[in-house]
Amino acid sequence: MTAKVISICNLKGGVGKTTIVMALAEYLAGDTMYGKRVLVIDLDPQCNLTNILMSEDVWFSQFERNKLTLPYLFKQPKDFLSHIKNEDFIAKQDISNIKAKFQSLHLIPSSPMLFEIQEELPEGFYYNLGLKPIDLLKEVINSLSKKYDYVLIDCPPTINKTIKSAFLASNFCILPCTPNRMSIGGLRLILRHIKKFNNENGHNLTSLGTLISRFNVSRANENQLVELIMTSSEFPSIFRTKIAERAQLAKNLDFGEKLTYKQKYGDLYDSLKDFAQEVIQRVK
Ligand SMILES: Nc1ncnc2c1ncn2[C@@H]1O[C@H](COP(=O)(O)OP(=O)(O)OP(=O)(O)O)[C@@H](O)[C@H]1O
Ligand SMILES: [Mg+2]
Questions:
Q1: Residue 234 to residues 8, 82, 175, 210, 212: CA-CA distances in angstroms?
Q2: Which of 97, 135, 257, 273 could form a disulfide with 131 if both were Cys (CB 3.0 to 4.6 A apart)?
Q3: Which atom of ligand 1 is nearest to the CA of 154?
């Protein structure tokens, strides 16, 4: 079995991409939940996923200092790829603050260096390497794909060569969207770019669906916008489960304290569990 590779994207910031990647990974990998082998990849130079899933000290001493965070895949691909055999760029211990056993929950951490490095990528092939920037993530994932059931990629709200490397490496995407006009605009844009990318590269990145996230029934016109997303053929079918807006969630992201699923996610516990189940069904 090779891993199902899923990019989580929307070109609007703040719609909940990172939060969804974190929760989906924790639910899929939990031994008492679905018991899958999960690798998450932080492709965003903001490093929010890295921040909430691992200790800053480990990030610095084992990964960033040794040039083993994701930006170095793009800056020094030959050196970085030489670590594939030993998987030195994968954080495997103590990923997540959930108090549970995981089948495997691993992370390829990012670094703010990616802001700079992504601006300096070659147009064509790297010198002495038959690969272009957009090929690199696929190269890494292909070499690992028998070891995981799911690879989840947290994408930045930008179109550049690094997000295109995620498109090329992925079979599927999930599109979180908050019911407001800007997020819907970001959804439209990402769909247009994915279509263009598929055409230009003979690729078939398939949408698993639109996920309504940070849904707040008491906010004016959210129901109408959900209706618009549901009924317009321009958007991929929405997941049955919607993720509600819950201010409490942000408080439980601190890496220090270990929490149970119910403590961490409160009344989002069931919807996140259902969402993970829907993802498992939709990728079949
Ligand atoms: N369901 C939710 N309820 C309340 N707050 C949420 C929810 N989901 C995410 N948030 C909060 O909203 C903010 C943005 O979420 P998140 O970082 O997941 O979005 P993002 O789409 O990854 O943003 P970016 O595009 O900047 O990477 C965070 O502070 C997060 O804690
Ligand atoms: Mg994010």
A1: 18, 43, 13, 11, 15
A2: 135
A3: 22
Atom 15 (ligand 1): residue with closest C-alpha? 16
Query: What does the DSSP assignment read for 127-175?
Result: TTSS--GGGHHHHHHHHHGGG-SEEEEE--SS-SHHHHHHHHH-SEEEE
Write down the pLDDT at residue 186.
97
Token couple for 179: 């019911």
Which residues share a beta bridge with 259?
A: 98
Q: How far is the CA of 214 from the centre of ligand 1 (A)?
A: 8
From first CA to last CA, the distance across the chain in angstroms is 12
Domain ranges of the chain: 4-283
The DSSP bridge partners found for residue 102 are: 30
Strands 150-154 and 104-108: unpaired
pTM over 0.90: yes
**Span 4-283: which CATH code?**
3.40.50.300
pLDDT digits (tens, 9 = 90+) for 223-254: 899 999 999 999 999 999 999 999 988 888 88
Residue 219 CA to residue 215 CA, distance in Å, equals 9
Residue nearest to atom 13 of ligand 1 (CA): 14
* Cβ proximity of 109 and 39 under 8 Å: no
